[in-house]
Structure formats: C-alpha cells, structure tokens
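Board notes, transcribed. Complex of a protein with magnesium ion.
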Amino acid sequence: MSGEKVDLSRLWIEILADIAKNIGSGCCQSWFEKALPLRLEDGVFVLQTNQRLVRDRLLTQYHQILLETCQKYIPEVLAIEVLFDTSNPQAQDEGPEEQNSELVPENTGNREKEFLPSKKNDLDPRFTFENFIVGKPNEFAHAAALRVAESQETQFNPLFLYGGVGLGKTHLMHAIAWKIRENYPKRTVIYLSAEKFMYQFIRALRFHNNMAFKDQFRSVDVLMIDDFQFIGGKETTQEEFFHTFNDLVDKKRQVILSADKSPSDLENIGERLKSRLGWGLVADIHPTTYELRLGILQAKAETLKLGIPNEVLEFLSAKITSNVRELEGALNRIMAHASLVGRPITLESTQEVLRDLLRSNEHYLAIEDIQKRTSEFFGIKIADLLSSRRLQTITRPRQVAMYLCKELTTKSLPDIGRKFGGRDHTTVIHAVKKVQELCAKNAEFAHDIETLKLSLIL
Ligand code: ADP
Ligand code: MG
C-alpha cells in the first residue's frame, strides 16, 4: 500500500529530526539518515540500508534511541529491524515509495524503462532456503521449490505453491529467486505480486505501451507472481496473464505462482486458466505443528544470538498456533520489551508482554466452557466433574477437561486446579500426563480427544 509507505517516510523525517536534536545532526547524518523505512508489520518497523556498519550501529549502540524515538512517533512500533541490502546501491538517494516488491537482475537490457519492474531488489535477504526450517507441514512445498530453483530444465510448469497466511509462501518464493540468481546469474527472474502485475498492466494500457509490457514479461526466463489470488475477478488482467503464461510455457520458461488457495479453489478465475494452473506441480503448505514452530523459533533465537530460555520458546510454540508471522511478531515483542526494561526474558515476562496476543490465540476459551463441553461429550454432569467422586467414568472426563484447559488456555496449573473443585496443581500435571499417555496408546481415545478439542476451538 503506497499510502502507508508515504506516511512512513514522512514520519521517518520527523523521527530523524528528533534524533538529530538529541545526538547532533552530524551523527544523525552518518548513521540514521543512511537508512530508509521499508514497512511496518506486526509492530516491527523495518528499515533498510546498504551499509553493513550502519545496520550494526543502529541495532547496537543506537538501538535504544532509535526504538524510543520511533515509538514516540509511531506508537504501534514494538521492535526495530534493519535490513542490510547490497543490491540496492541507491537506497540512500531514492524515496521509499520506490521500494517495491520486484526484482529484475541487471541483464535485462534497456527495454522501455518506464514499464520495467524496478531493478532495485527488495527480495528479503532473510528469506533464503538456508533460513527456511523444514517440517512435516512444508516439506513437500520446500522440496518442490528447491527442485525448481536448482534444475536446469523446466520440469514442472507452473510450480504453484499455496497455503494460509503467514506460512512461508513469500519466504519460499524469495528463496527460489535467490537460488536461481546464485546458480544461474544469466537467467532473468521477475518476482512481483499479482497486484503489481495488474498495476503495471493498467499503466501500460493507459500509456499505450502494452507492447513494451508484453515484451518485458514474455522475455524473462522465470516469472514469479506472489499472491496470485488477487487476480480473481480482474478479468482483463487475467486474460493478459493467461497469454503471457502460455507464451512462457511454450518457450519452456519457468512460471512460479503462489496463492492462498489451490488452483481449483481460486475464486473468480476463469475455468480455462484454473485448469491450466493445475497442470504443473501444485504444492501446499499446511498449518504449522508444534515441532515446526519450535524449530523456527530456536533457529531464529540462535541466529539473533539471543539468550532466550528454551522454556519460553516452548511456551510460545505451544500457545501461538496461528501462523509463523505471528510467532515471529511475538518473539520480536518480547525482545523489544527485554531491551527496553533491561531485564532478561523469562516465562513470566513473556506472559505479561504477550497477554493480548495469547488471548487471541486462546480462542477466548474459558475453563468453564471446556468443563461444560467435556461433560456434555462424556454425558456426565458438570457437578460430577468438579466433585471428588472417583468413579472412572468421572475421573477420566475430569482428566480430559484438565488436559484441555492446559492445552487451550493460558491459565496456570494452580488456576486450573482451583477451578476443578480446589484441586492441587500436581493433580493437573498428573491428569495431563495420563491423557497424553492414553492418546499415545489408544488411537480411538486420541481421536475422541481431537474431536472434542476441535469442537471447542472451531
Ligand atoms: P506468507 O507469504 O505465506 O503469508 P511469509 O512467507 O511472509 O508468509 O512468512 C511469514 C514469516 O514467517 C516470514 O518472516 C517468514 O520468514 C517466516 N516463516 C514462515 N515459514 C517459515 C519457515 N518454515 N522457516 C523459517 N521462517 C518461516
Ligand atoms: Mg506472502
């Protein structure tokens, strides 16, 4: 959204002026003015610079003043990120509005400049295969992406990656682009969002330059379009894309698309195009599992060299189940908090800082909801669930309810115990263990628990 970017650059100017007042304009010029605002996402204010030293200084010596000043002008800022990007030598001289999500390597020649996607590249330097953690939910998409990025010939055309928001589609797309550039520097890669594709197409029509537009897209070796679902309902753009697509495929050039749905589920996309999109390789990214979330957090904490206790990472992986973006946002927030208050990160501080986020991932479940649903499920009375009766037909549902409270809410073990007729937290621990054991041993029981759980969270 360019409106937001314009705003950010205006705010950045105010921030710079404020910092200059504090530390002197010479110092401000040497460091802060060498960075540009890129975006504000999940509370993380992302800046970009083409000087490694600038990035390092902004994240160490000047981190505090930078963060505090940014927060003064943009209250939603929780953390600062500074990207280092050598491929963008003009970063200091050009407006941030120009920082769009496109890439054309240097060898595209001098075709109609106006209609070329910007040569500047904002492929995120962090979005590489090396930084992509592979787990069950994404192993197929990852393997497909890697294969397409590495192979000399076009085996699968198109490669169609799809999955829910924040699960790593853009990360994989950028990783492919980086890898192709590294392995085949002569190949021309265009990476852009579907929105940008449409925007350029409309501009070409308006300026009667569609020949240049067509040439540009039809001469690439690899065309990558992110968030393809955007093209739904935009019929003229779809038509143009379809021609481009056929032309590229005929020439055995690689087309790579990502979307939030599978080709057949895309809305307002012509049947012809839909079916054609499914001819290549369609790979989906599934929602994350606990193991994958933990793996991602551990890798991130390690590269950032943060001393975050593992129990905090485990806690986050268990509680923030929505998507990876939110998980990373949570990590950034607790880091920002720790650096602001100058205290190490603990489980308690994490719970405190993330209270709102945890609540939204909690599906607003109260212990009482879980008790009610569980007793209905097992056909017993709530009063029995809370009583001290020790019949197995009652103790088992009670254990299940305790287990679900532990899994689905952020309540502490003592809190849970109290709500079950004033039981001790060790009883809750015992219940959780028991249910886990039973699930491991008895598939039918595990299935029941899963059904009950889904009925609570959906
Ligand atoms: P999408 O495009 O599917 O909405 P993104 O690719 O933007 O999602 O991913 C959101 C964030 O999560 C990014 O910062 C990305 O690096 C991170 N991420 C997602 N999946 C992984 C993964 N498997 N390993 C490491 N980081 C990941
Ligand atoms: Mg994306």
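The pocket of magnesium ion (ligand 2) is lined by residues 169-170, 226-227 (CB under 6 Å). DSSP finds 21 helices and eight strands in the chain.
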